[in-house]
Amino acid sequence: MNQEQPRRHQADQDPIKYGDVLPVSGDLAQKPIAPEDAAMMQSAESRVLGQTQPGGVASVMQSAATRNEQAGIVGHRDVTDVTCDRGVTVTETQVPGRRIVTESIGGQVVGQFVEPTPVQGGQTGVVGESALTIGEALEATAHTVGDKPVEQSDASAIQAAEVRATGCNVITPGGLASMAQSAASYNADCQRDEDKIKIGDVLSGATAKLPADKAATRQDAAGVASAEMRNNPDATATPGGVAASVAAAARLNESVNNVM
To answer: Residue ranges under compositional bias (Basic and acidic residues) (predicted)?
Structure first.
């Protein structure tokens, strides 16, 4: 595979860049989507999901890459340097009756959704028991952005999630919120990223660390998102982060209840 090279293309047609169609930032946002990038995502989706998802990330990338190739902006075997170096991934987190699928490009989360999975015999009809909980959503966050250093916005979101899961405004000593706040404070004074405490360190096994738990609702998701964005200088939530995972769980719970 060849890394992207400058090419002559029609002057009246701009390249379709990652930032035009996907929620990415930095250098990747300015890169034209190349055919081999799309092929890598198609392969990753097929490996995990069994097929490319209609209207999904791979489908969007393929459409953009085809247009860029037809315009002479990229070649058929071109690959973007970011995807070549850091790759694309599609991962799944299994919870009872559900799986949370997260798609990333160059380390940036570009898509996340929840799918129902077959329930073990004898458990049908117990929607309330199989609903995704806040604790399970936090565990999913450990998988999606587990390598991200804990920041104040993450700690605030985790605290909001714990309060809603337990129904208690008192922070449990040694609990998730306490651990997250300690991690954020430590990381603020830590110079090297490799020495910082990561989200995965705090949220792995989150369900067992909560004294109580509950099914995630739209109201829970809104409260967690507000806490995360309010404490982020950019006033945004991390893709695949705490707020995004609670929101994904709430959406699935709501859709299941609407079906039943």
So the answer is: 1-17
Q: Is the sign of the CA dihedral 171, 200, 236, 240 positive or negative?
A: negative
pLDDT-derived band at 223 (thresholds 50, 70, 90) equals very high
**Position 105, amino acid:** I
Q: Please choose, from the candidates 96, 105, 89, the residue with its C-alpha nearest in 3D space to the C-alpha of residue 139.
A: 96
> Could you tell me the two tokens for 219?
């109201």
Look up residue 150 and give its DSSP letter. P
Confidence class of residue 101 from pLDDT cuts 50, 70 and 90? confident
Question: At 38, which helix (H) or strand (E)?
Answer: helix 35-49
Nearest CA to 150 out of 118, 195, 105, 114 is that of 195
DSSP letters, 95-126, are ETTEEEEEEEETTEEEEEEEEE-PPPTT-TT-
What is the pTM for the complete model shown? 0.60
Task: Report which of 17, 248, 226, 49 is spatially closest to residue 134, judged by C-alpha positions.
Answer: 248
How many other β-carbons are positioned within 10 Å of the β-carbon of residue 81?
Answer: 14
pLDDT digits (tens, 9 = 90+) for 58-70: 999 999 999 999 9
The predicted-structure confidence for 169-194, as pLDDT tens digits, reads as follows: 877 778 899 999 999 999 998 988 88
Sign of the C-alpha dihedral, residues 87, 235, 57, 102? positive
Helix, strand and coil content of the chain, in percent to the nearest 5, comes to 50, 15, 35
Query: Does an H or E element contain 75, and which?
Result: none
Q: Where are the domains of the chain?
A: 18-116, 134-258
